[in-house]
Amino acid sequence: MTSSWQHLTMHEVQSLLQKREISAVELTHGFLERIAALDGMLHCYLTVDAQGALAQAQEADKRLATGQATPLTGMPLAIKDVIATKGLRTTCASKYLENFIPPYDATVMQKLRQAGAVILGKVNMDEFAMGSSTENSAFGVTRNPWHLECIPGGSSGGSAAAVAADLCLAALGSDTGGSIRQPASHCGVVGLKPTYGRVSRFGLVAYASSLDQIGPLSKDVTDCALLLQAIAGHDPQDSTSAPLPVPNYSQALEKDVKGMQIGVPREYFQAGLDPEVEQAVQAALNHYEGLGAQLVEVSLPHTEYAVAVYYLIATAEASSNLARYDGVKYGWRDPNARELMEMYTASRSQGLGTEVRRRIMLGTYALSAGYHDAYYRKASQVRTLIRRDFDQVFQTCQVVATPVAPTAAFRLGEKTADPLTMYLSDIFTISANLAGIPGISLPCGLTSQGLPIGLQLLARPFDELTLLTAAYAFERTTAFHRLKPPVE
């Protein structure tokens, strides 16, 4: 079931492939066997494409033999099931799209295929990316490899758990309010949300179009840089894609943090933060000081409004984006409906899950004629204030450091009956999406129960280089990223 190389990172495996010590086909076979052995317990994958993956691995071996390889050639990856994959089922973890097979690839998938990556399959998530625990999937929960009775985080819980359990070398997720960083924290892996516009959203099934962003989850910062390098860049098919050059992210790994000013916002270290999380994050900050960085206390005064603003803007955009699921064009349709309105109503109520329906109703209310100015417009104005807070802070520091989540992973079912408490799980990650800035989560400790704790770093728009520099400086002088869950 397990070979030693399955625990390696992409850049470590890359060396083995180039030396011909292992083939891409052998590598892929090994991961498929590991998925078969362990995924019944973890439930990371919704679709495993064994035949397609092995065919891609054979092509990768040909590229390796002719010296035409990229850093991703032959690398077995998992893809969050909200990203369109041509010919491969894409469900968004929803009954509504249970049998949907896209006729095209998302731009990030085109880039991965051009780089020679091997796609193992599609991984579980909260339905339509709406959730913080991967408990909202229509196809069952994903379990945290560190503790099977705990959530892996969400909505990219399947991606984070698959990386942590070595069921892939790395994965793609999407982040609308923390959906890459929070599960990365809970599963002890690295997760990066790029700047809004840095990575094309073409082919990403929309939840909240002004907030969504695709990004990598990986075993270490180096792999994160490699995967971001492959998927970043301007895309004319996405009108919000930034027409900016993509720097060489690997160069960020060669620098240190001596003299770097790291902002520590007082609003993120208040009541409600678990003491073990606070202790681990504070220890990480002290470690940065030991590396020569300078800690600067800063203020982000509008942080307290972030959750309210997010759950107005995101749900309003969801209400608009999910109107297309009407039982007419594609997806689930109630077979018993006899007239048009009955078909609309029954198809949506039966095909969409509870949390998705809740958010559609919230957003529809916020956009309705009598309330648009009072709710959606006001939220948009406060969003601008949150963005200005970060603009001001980044005049005095290069990076902001915070916890990723108020607690480590909680137990399955613990918060499902209380949506507001669940929504507060993202209180530290939401602001980055509202401001459009990049953020990364990296492992910085374990609780007394053995659950991972993440450190969040934030940077200026399109300054992923500085973000990766700061993250790698911490990682190369600590060993938290090498800890493995007891999942064998």
Q: Which key phrases capture this entry?
A:
single chain; eleven-stranded mixed beta sheet; Amidase signature (AS) enzymes; 11 strands; 488 residues
Structural class: alpha/beta
Distance between the termini: 9 Å
N-to-C SSE series? HHEHEHEHEHEEHEHEHHHHEHHEEH
Low-confidence stretches: none
Q: Regarding CATH, which class of the domain at 4-256?
A: Alpha Beta
Describe the global form.
globular
CATH architecture of the domain at 4-256: Alpha-Beta Complex
Number of helices: 15
For this structure, the quaternary state is single chain
Number of beta strands:
11
CATH superfamily of the domain at 4-256, please? Amidase signature (AS) domain
Largest sheet: 11 strands, mixed
Q: What helical percentage do the residues reach?
A: 25-40%
**What do the pLDDT scores average to?**
96
Q: How much β-strand is present in the residues?
A: 5-15%
Strand order of the largest sheet: 1-3-2-4-6-5-10-11-9-7-8
Radius of gyration: 21 Å
Quote the CATH topology of the domain at 4-256. Amidase signature (AS) enzymes
